[in-house]
Amino acid sequence: MIVIGLMSGTSVDAIDAAAAEFLWRRTEIVLRPLGHAEFPWPDGTRARLLDALPPAGTSMAEVCALDTLAGEAFGAAADRAVRELAGGRADLVVSHGQTVFHWIEGGRARGTLQIGQPAAIVEATGLPVISDIRARDVAAGGQGAPLASTLDALWLAGTDGRRRAALNLGGIANITVVGRAGEPVLGFDTGPANCLLDVEAARLSNGQRNSDTDGALALSGTVRPDLLARLLEDAYYSQPAPKSTGRELFHTDYTRERLRGLPPASGPDLMATLTELTARTVAAACAAHGVVEVVASGGGTRNPALMAALRRNLAPAVLLTSEERGLPTDGKEAYLMALLGFLSWHAVPGVAPGATGSRTPRVLGRISPGDAPLRLPDPAPAPTALVIEPAGPSALPAADGPGPSPADYPPAATPDLPSDRA
Description:
ATP binds at residues 9-16. One of its GO terms (molecular function) is kinase activity. It is an enzyme of class 2 (transferase). By secondary structure, the protein is α/β, with parallel strands linked by helices. The protein has two domains: 2-144 and 331-410, Nucleotidyltransferase, domain 5 (2-Layer Sandwich), CATH 3.30.420.40; 148-325, Nucleotidyltransferase, domain 5 (2-Layer Sandwich). It contains twelve helices and 13 strands. The protein is globular.
């Protein structure tokens, strides 16, 4: 199958898209990256999305409008991804949507809301769409995050017994701790990555900067120990894993409220301190689980100040980027969405056992049928590994224009699957 994955994280900085070809090789999944791209949000839509996030209030009319506008933006991104990344044909679109609220009560996830009307994506592409990826895991008692543990567990598990962590540096930082193949996987949000930095960068530049991607502001400042100590007092960091968080806690006024009563900090010093906060909390989480190697991805990897702080705090653990292991740092989350959709299409649970705290791993998402008749393949066995191979000539049938429905041909590994699979 050729699958388009769409992702927009808590920073709401852009829509990430990736195209991947997947096939089964017995119980291994082969992922061949076809390309990834970043598409800007339409003028005004990003600002409206940010204005609706906590602690701001909003109306149901605005939620309805944003659901439609976000869906149209995701649809346009999917259409471009099919044409520009997948050579004009694809079989399935998987959209994470835009998170606008993640309901945590007493340490438990009670609900999660991602908007971006999937019907608009179907209309733009004619393809079936899998959306609402997180809700089933929450309904089963999980945190609904981080779902990257699914990809990470198949990708990074080794035979040497060494513990590795996949680190995603989006608006929120999350890690997946992976040990020996077959061992339980643990995934959780460690705290803020870019979300607090983005807010302060915009304030310091009077809205001229959306982030401190180049690290210039932080590199020109000095960490304030008193500010850092106050920030580290937040109870979230001492909560046991699995756990998840978002802008409901680390909102636009969080830093100002948290530091109230302390001597004011210069802009560069505040940015340096927030950068150190992310590095310290990530490093503490990794050290608590005996991690010796960290593989980072996400927008934060483009920030040299953050990466330098991470290397310093993680030592002696080694810090790599996902690029060094075959997946682009900017595209990994979109490839994750494509993988989750591929698993759901084949009725395979999309959560590694124990990773999010759910009682039982569930098949994720809901399917919106495309223009072709919807016929799903037989369920596949649980995968044992993810193999990333360079993209080459497609193993799938050639087509003029958009590709056929996935039901028009069987999964590549169907002949190798056990005959008694229901």
